[in-house]
Every structure is written in C-alpha cells, then in structure tokens.
Amino acid sequence: MLALFFILMGTALLLLLLGWAVSKGGYWLISGFAFRPKEEQEKLIEAGFPQKVGKLLMATAAGMVLLLPLLFTSFPYAVEVIIGFMLIFLLGGIIYLSRYEVPEKRKKSYIISSGIALITFVSLGVLMFFGYQETELIFKKEGIEITGMYGEEIPYGDIQNVKLLEEMPKATVKIDGFGTSLIAKGKFKLDGYGPSLLFIQKGKPPYLQIKTKDRHIFINSPDPDITRSWVEKLK
C-alpha cells in the first residue's frame, strides 16, 4: 500500500508543479501552445485559457491529495476512486476549457477533447469489466483451463506439484498484468518464486499454488471451499 501511496502522491506533486509553472507563465508547457501563431497565443492568454489550465492541474492535484487517506482505510476501492477522480476531473476540465479556445478552433477542440475522453473511459471500462470477471478453473480430459483475462490451458503432465497457501507471496514487479487493490491477474514477479502467473482475489485465502515445469501459477476463488475443491481434484 505504501508503494501505491508514493506513486499517487508523486503523480499529484507532478501535476501540482506543472500547474504552478503554467500559472506563473510557463505556457509553453501546454501541449502545442508554443507552436501556435503569436496572434493565437495572445488571444488565448487574453481569454485566460493557459491560466485556467494551470488552475485545473493544481485543483486535480489537490483533490488527489485529499483522497489519498482512503488508501489507509478499509474502503476497498480507494485506488480506483483516486485514479477515477483524476481522469474525470482532468478530462472533464479539458472539455470545459475548450470554450476559451479561439473561436475558429473551438468546435474542433470540443470534438477532439470529447473524443479523447470517450476513448479513455470506454477503454478503461472494457479493461475493468474483463479484469473483474471471476476466474474459473475448468477440469478437462487432458488438462485444466483457466478462464478469463490471461487465462490458458495447462496439460496435467506439466503439473509437478499443487498446494494451498494461507498467505500470498509478496509481488515485487508487475511484468504484464492487471492489478488493483482487489484483483491481480497476469504475470508478476514474486518474492521467492520469480515470474509467476496470478489469478488472485486479494484478501480471500486460501490460494492454490500450481507448480509446472517452468513456472508457478497462483489462483483462488472468492469462495474458500471452491479453492480447496480444486486442490483435491488436482491431487
């Protein structure tokens, strides 16, 4: 949790510093501003566009800092709330600030900013939908199938050992995966195990460890009895 805190705090501080620099006249920090004709730059400054961009960045940072204490509570969706706030506030603010664009580019700015926001939220929605789908372990004739995101089939002949763990090893690096405060799916590097494949509902032991010829796989169900039944069937 401390790692997440420092990552999110660092992001907030970066936004705060960037917003402060823009509000103090560093308008070139705004994407594309330095390449606009001087006449357009003057119109935007007169309308208050770059100044409001700076305030938007600082307000986003302030909101994130105020929400950070959620990480140390029992609220399960703290990370999602903080990141969601950042994206909604920033992207919504950018759409709103299109009204301060030069008149001949205002419509185009609305279309582009709205399009970026739509693509971002749709992509995140799809990712969250598939990421939060419950993983199932299906027993087939030749092997087991792990369903859902990052799922695959594993022949019985590749399985060397299975056991139950009451506590998950610490994940040090996410190699290629989907991870939130509640879910971990995909390839992670674990202390004592190296690169491993995870299908984990966090905080819901026990966890089934499957050792194959070349790696470790960790999987569990929200229902502990189901996880235990998987072990018995594999044995």
UniProtKB/TrEMBL annotation:
Q: Which UniProt keywords apply?
A: Membrane, Transmembrane, Transmembrane helix
The answer to whether the entry has keyword Cytoplasm is: no
Q: Per its UniProt record, what InterPro entries does this chain match?
A: Bacterial_PH-related, UCP037672
| Residue ranges of domain Bacterial Pleckstrin homology in the record | 137-223
Transmembrane ranges, per UniProt, are 6-35, 81-98, 110-132
Which superkingdom?
A: Bacteria
Q: What is this protein called?
A: Bacterial Pleckstrin homology domain-containing protein
Source organism (scientific name): Neobacillus piezotolerans
